[in-house]
Amino acid sequence: MQYRVEGLVIRSIDYGEGNKIVTLLTNTQGKAGVIIRGAKKAKSRHGSLAQLFTHGEFIFFRNTGLGTLTHGEIIESHHVLREGLELTAYASYAAELTDRALQEEEAGAYVFEQLKSCFAALQEGKDPEIIIQLYEIKILELTGYAPDFETCASCGNVVGSMALSARAGGVLCSRCSYRDPQALQLTDGALKLLRLYRRMDMRRMGQVQVKPETKKLLKQAMRQLMDTHVGLNLKSRSFLDQLDKYTME
Ligand SMILES: [Zn+2]
Predict the structure, then answer these.
(1) What is the whole-number distance in angstroms between the Cα of residue 54 and the centre of ligand 1?
(2) Stated pTM of the model
(3) Digit-coded pLDDT (tens) for 106-129
(4) Which of 44, 140, 217, 244 is the most exposed place for a label (fewest CB within 10 A)?
């Protein structure tokens, strides 16, 4: 059967003599593995379609398992994301997270739009840490672990300061935070942003100005949530951590 999809390349590996297998996040067919024959040859018409982060139109045949590309066109190459070390690191994390965290049935048109916007925002030079945190929240929502930052998970209180409890799937108020010794006390600024992330669509993300200490706290909060609920040991994550250490020294 022939498929014509819009897709984002979220994984690309060498296969045999000169070929590549890409994993596409598509707008209509979830995640799809497609062989691009001759992609590594210098004169290949389809070589650039096999590059990580490429947004394109892909036409492929598939009966079962892997598809075979017959034709494709680049819509947006996202080459900027493959050039700088930092941008590549963030975009790789978003791609790998999408590839590994989402089950087939969770990968629909909505996440395609979110990842497309995530790549676009990175390319436009918006704050990569904020973009990635927002994207992580979208992944948590899609996998059924949407955190509740509005209401204390223990008593239902909605006012006052809150601590993040990944285990409780949201926040605990000052009366209840003792219930989770690992709970992370949030500042007003951090709480406000987390609440905003839940309401915000990647497609509408503007330029957000966040104080460094708030960003640091948000990073800790997101790490706890991702480790507790997604718990993947991603290569791109460890690379981001190394980069972090390096830039802080
Ligand atoms: Zn409470």
Answers:
(1) 46
(2) 0.94
(3) 888 999 999 999 999 999 999 999
(4) 244
